[in-house]
Amino acid sequence: MDSYDDETFEDGFDEDRSAQGVNLDLWRRLFSYISTYRKELYILAGCAFTTALLEPVYPILTKWIVDDVQANGMEANFWLWATLGILCNVGLALSVGTFVWVAGKLRVYASHDLRREAFANLQRLSFSYYDYRPVGWLMARMTADCDRLTNILAWAFLDLIWGSTMMVAIAAAMFIMHWKLALCALTIVPFVGWVSAKFRRRILVSARLVRATNSRITGSFNEGIMGVLTSKAFVREGANLDEFSATTTTMRDASVKNLKLAAIYLPVILVFASVSINLTLLVGGSEMITGLITAGTVIAFMMLARHFFDPVEIMGHWFAEMQMAQASAERVLSLIDARPDIADSASVREAIAAQRGAPPRPSIAEDGGPAEINEITLRDVSFHYTPEKPVLQGVNLTARKGDTIAIVGPTGGGKSTLVNVICRFYQPTHGEVLIDGVDYRSRSLHWLQSNLGMVLQNAHVFSGSIRENIRYGRLDASDDEVVEAARLAGALGFIEELEKGFDTEVGEGAGRLSAGQKQLVSFARAILADPQILVMDEATSSVDTETELRIQEGLVKLLEGRISFVIAHRLSTIRNATKILVVEDGTITESGTHEDLMAKRGHYAELYRQQSLNETTRDSRFARDSA
Predict the structure, then answer these.
(1) Are 580 and 597 in contact (CB under 8 A)?
(2) φ, ψ at 586 (rounded to 5°)
(3) Above 70 in pLDDT, residue 423?
(4) pLDDT reported for residue 87
(5) How far is Cα of residue 80 from the mean position of the Cα atoms in its chain?
């Protein structure tokens, strides 16, 4: 199972988890995403350190100027103080400019690494991970959560170095000048720490709720856009708006609460800073009147006391942001740490490593499986998504090289699930799937799925050119092979009619192609892959009868010498299948050739006769309408 329970992160923020506050282990791990860039970190730390040391110089310069003027009047050395001030300004400008540039680089680098690792893991996860997670839910993690996280990783690190160095430098300068005034100015620090601890837990709770609701909003946006035609067809706009409004209201309330807490926290810090300055003025003014300290010292202390709390205010802001970012961090890391339900066992990985280190053998593939697949056997296979609702029960089946296994039956009967189990997108909860007599769990997952070719009912075509989409089946294929695959699939005709032919851009979601054209491109892609196992899920449902006939001609050659599974609703397309399975309620109720099943006069024969009658009636109506 996945290492994080995402439903807990999404909605189940219990009190114990919220009370944990800042998770140092989590931040230590996140810091590893920028700690690899040591050169940038050293430059950043050096610039922050330099800036922090230069800023306290201004109050000290002010003290020297005031004391010099008080002692020497117009004879004070103004040129010296002006020169020192300009040098400080130039140093600060160079230091600030450098650390802003380097911090920006670090942010981009960390964002790149986080997103790349998250996307790589998404590619590894099993189908089951996506069963209950909408696209928008995942998109929120890859975009908004990553942005917030990398922002604080870079800039908060900078401010942490700058702030801590500056506070230490200011405190040291205070104690060197006058330790009693220093104690007065810094007396307030413990109270600042106490207030921060009080606000920490409440800000984190509201931050988690904001991030969780944001994922649901992103998911709602995605579903609303993708399903806009359906919504309009069923006049669901009003109901959709009500549902979306409820979610956004939750987001608004949680965000307002979070902002309110942050808005209260920062002014409280400012109040403490004012108290510190007033204490310094009170005590320092008293001692200045009695002549114990100079006016320059009092002014310098007031400036230092004010600057001492500048980092506190900025780090207080980052503290509030850190609570938000921690909620984002939990969500992004839950994506990175998710583990696929289906993966190679340790023994399989060891066997593959040993095979790659040994001399090549023609009968063995590079990733440990046999070079050829001759037989697939299902032995008493059962499967369920949830234990109380079995989808497949006690399925037994043998398919040999050259066989075409057609699977028919009512909607929801288990046809697609059966094929998904054979392809190892899911694994049987009971029983075995054997490939040449060996349980496929003892084989490499990559080996099996690299030998699969699929043409689905709803073909997915990526943005890009038609040539690139067909070549997706085999990336090293030549242009001639791409053209031949398109010809066998019956796609060459419509492609050549396009202005740019194979170089035509299909657009986002292949919006420039019809459903039938997308299906033909998908079919050509599968032909180019030349798989040992071919799966077709109602592959010709979106093409016209004439194109279907051309595809059927190409299929005769394509199906030779491989194991094919065809899910069909149009029974006339599977008459020549080696074996036809009728799957109902997760079990195989009938099995045999077309002639065998017609002779049995069972469910298949009844479906076939009914479809033939419907097609005959439809053709007659079409002929009358044409006449």
Answers:
(1) yes
(2) 80, 10
(3) yes
(4) 86
(5) 58
Please give the Cα distance from 89 to 57 (Å, whole number): 10
What percentage of the chain exceeds 90 in pLDDT? 6
Say how far apart CA 21 and CA 74 lie, in whole Å: 57
Taking residue 514's Cβ as centre, other Cβ atoms within 10 Å add up to 12
260 and 381 share a domain?
no
Q: What is the pLDDT of residue 550?
A: 63
pLDDT of residue 618: 53
Same domain for 404 and 274? no
Residues 6+ apart with CB under 8 A from 370: 363, 364, 435, 436
Instruction: Give the pair of three-digit tokens for residue 353.
Output: 């490593």
The residue segments making up the domain with residue 612 are: 372-450+567-627
With contact defined as beta carbons under 8 Å apart, do 459 and 518 qualify?
Answer: yes
At 379-400, the pLDDT tens digits run 999 998 887 788 899 999 999 9
Helix (H) or strand (E) segment spanning residue 358: none
pLDDT band at residue 283 under the 50/70/90 scheme: confident
Smallest CA-to-CA distance from 391 within 427, 339, 423 is with 427
Distance CA 381, CA 421 (A): 9
Confidence of residue 3 (pLDDT cuts 50, 70, 90): very low
Tokens linked to 122: 């998404």
Phi/psi of residue 272, nearest 5 degrees: -60, -40
The reported pLDDT for the residue numbered 558 is 67
Q: Which of 518, 358, 516, 378 is nearest to 439 (CA)?
A: 378
CB 524 within 8 A of CB 488: yes
pTM of the model: 0.62
Given a cut of 70, whether residue 413 has pLDDT beyond it is yes
Last-in-domain residue among 337, 363, 388: 337
Give the span between the Cα atoms of 258 and 208, in whole angstroms: 10
Alpha-carbon separation of residue 123 from 250, 340, 505 (angstroms): 32, 10, 25
| 64 and 190 assigned to the same domain | yes
| Secondary structure class of 405 (helix, strand, coil) | strand
Are residues 230 and 136 part of one domain?
A: yes
Residue 379 CA: distances (Å) to CA of 156, 374, 396, 438, 531? 58, 16, 5, 12, 24
Task: Name the band, by pLDDT with cuts 50, 70 and 90, for residue 9.
Answer: very low
- Given a cut of 60, whether residue 569 has pLDDT beyond it is yes
- Residue 176 structure tokens: 């060197």
- The pLDDT value given to residue 376: 92
- Name which of 253, 257, 256, 251 is nearest 218 in CA terms: 251
| DSSP letter for each residue of 407-465 | EE-STTSSHHHHHHHHTTSS--SEEEEEETTEEGGGS-HHHHHHTEEEE-SS----SSB
CA separation for the pair 587, 418 (Å, rounded): 10
Is 611 within a domain? yes
In the prediction, which pLDDT does 4 show? 36
Average pLDDT, stretch 355-365?
53
Predicted confidence band of residue 2 (pLDDT cuts 50, 70, 90): very low
User: What is the distance between the alpha carbons of residues 302 and 313, in angstroms, rounded to a whole number?
Assistant: 17
348 to each of 287, 310, 351, 436, 528, how far by Cα in Å?
Answer: 80, 58, 5, 16, 29
